[in-house]
User: Fold Transmembrane protein 234 from Paramormyrops kingsleyae.
Amino acid sequence: MVSLTEVLSLLLVALLWGATNPFLKKGAEGIEDVRGGRMVFQLIAEVKFLFINIRYLVPFLLNQSGSLVYYLTLATTDLSLAVPVTNSLTFLFTLLAGKLLGEEVDGKGALLGMFLTMLGVTLCVTSSIRESDTAG
Assistant:
């Protein structure tokens, strides 16, 4: 049976992955202006730019902590539930965080996408609960 802890862990992962995406995008602004000469020096200059940029580093670390929670959650959660729930909700949280940051979002299409995403996640969770109830 799917526990509340597992569902909350998957929601946390989706939130950490999704909400940090727009912040990573904003934090990486200006990287196109970084010049380092040859290809290797260019790469080093870009990595240095990102890792001394606190506007990029904090969302990056939060995003990576989501990956750690996901890894730990996979040890106890059914893979057929964990993957669709986290991936679809990540999209939803990215959309919401982008909207909060002032990004352009198609109104009706975004609302329809959010509704369908939530419907799909609900179906995944309820089917997982039913399967574990009939097995037990």
